């Protein structure tokens, strides 16, 4: 969990991801310790879309937002924090990975007291208006007692100054991040999908029993339906069978030729070389292969004739005696 402005983070170890567990963690670590958020962005996991969580958000008056499916960049701030937190904890967790809870609090403290790359201030200072008190600070501390009224006035002034700095730095960081993102996605800037366009959909779901190495991620074709917004599109299968869904534009690719297969279009056949096109190549490229051709092209495996010599340290090892002992036991 992360605050969008101050970048403050919360991380809670949970035994499971049930809706009841997530709701309790949200109430105990966000609502009771900080404040009820005005808006909350989550992914489309079942734990967040459950009726229990919907009722909790309704009672608290939280405006629930959802990320685009299979597009973690929508909630990139939390995803980036998760990667940093994993890197910190992985340096201290034991070999069985069962003592995470022992290091989580100090890992969060280290992250909160570090200067954030976007705001240029620490998360602690952005929230509390002062620098965190650490053992090193206590060693050289000469601060004198102050009146409560003077401390409150100074804290209010400091928070206004820090928040103004944070807002300015965030705006600059967002501008730079947008330029970097647009530079990596020039293709999607030039291809403006419109209502009625035929597109392919990039799917990361691996069907059961399939190998990820040979999985072809583009599926479809789909038709773009009327939708408001520049980043998310509502699509439905071109065949008319199946329900419509809302996806991010980065997962779509315009169909150049509706008669072409996306797999054949994007993944060239390993047989399509500059060599002459033989009869065997045409049969291999054809989606229908006759049984007679399969029988003639069948490769009969034979036992290897290579002589295998065991290392010298196994000279006294008798495999026959070992098999007899195993049979007796």
TrEMBL record:
InterPro entries: Integrase_cat-core, Retrovirus_Pol_polyprotein, RNaseH-like_sf, RNaseH_sf. It comes from the Eukaryota. One of its GO terms (molecular function) is nucleic acid binding. GO terms for biological process: DNA integration. Residues 257-285 are annotated as: Disordered. SUPFAM superfamilies: Ribonuclease H-like. Residues 1-143 form the Integrase catalytic domain. PROSITE patterns: INTEGRASE. This is Retrovirus-related Pol poly from transposon. It comes from Paramuricea clavata.
């Amino acid at each position: 969990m992360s605050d969008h402005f101050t970048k403050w983070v919360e991380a809670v170890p949970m035994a499971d991801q049930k809706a009841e567990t997530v709701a309790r963690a949200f109430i105990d670590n966000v609502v009771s310790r900080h404040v009820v958020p005005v808006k909350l962005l989550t992914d489309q996991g079942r734990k967040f879309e459950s009726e229990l969580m919907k009722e909790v958000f309704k009672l608290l008056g939280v405006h629930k937002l959802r990320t685009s499916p299979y597009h973690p960049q929508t909630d990139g701030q939390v995803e980036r924090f998760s990667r940093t937190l994993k890197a910190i904890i992985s340096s201290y967790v034991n070999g069985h990975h069962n003592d995470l809870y022992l290091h989580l609090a100090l890992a969060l403290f280290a992250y909160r007291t570090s200067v954030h790359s976007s705001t240029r201030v620490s998360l602690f200072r952005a929230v509390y208006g002062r620098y965190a008190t650490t053992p090193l600070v206590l060693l050289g501390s000469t601060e004198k007692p102050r009146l409560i009224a003077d401390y409150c006035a100074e804290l209010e002034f400091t928070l206004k100054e820090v928040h103004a700095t944070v807002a300015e730095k965030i705006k600059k960081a967002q501008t730079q991040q947008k330029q970097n993102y647009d530079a990596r996605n020039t293709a999607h800037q030039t291809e403006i999908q419109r209502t009625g366009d035929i597109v392919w959909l990039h799917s990361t779901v691996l069907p059961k029993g399939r190998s990820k190495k040979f999985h072809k991620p583009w599926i479809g074709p789909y038709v773009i339906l009327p939708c408001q917004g520049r980043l998310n599109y509502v699509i439905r299968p071109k065949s008319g069978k199946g329900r419509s869904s809302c996806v991010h534009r980065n997962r779509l690719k315009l169909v150049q030729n509706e008669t072409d297969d996306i797999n054949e279009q994007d993944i060239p056949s390993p047989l399509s070389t500059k060599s002459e096109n033989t009869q065997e190549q045409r049969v291999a490229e054809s989606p229908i292969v006759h049984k007679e051709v399969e029988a003639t092209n069948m490769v009969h495996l034979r036992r290897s004739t290579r002589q295998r010599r065991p290392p010298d340290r196994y000279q006294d090892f008798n495999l026959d005696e070992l098999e007899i002992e195993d049979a007796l036991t």
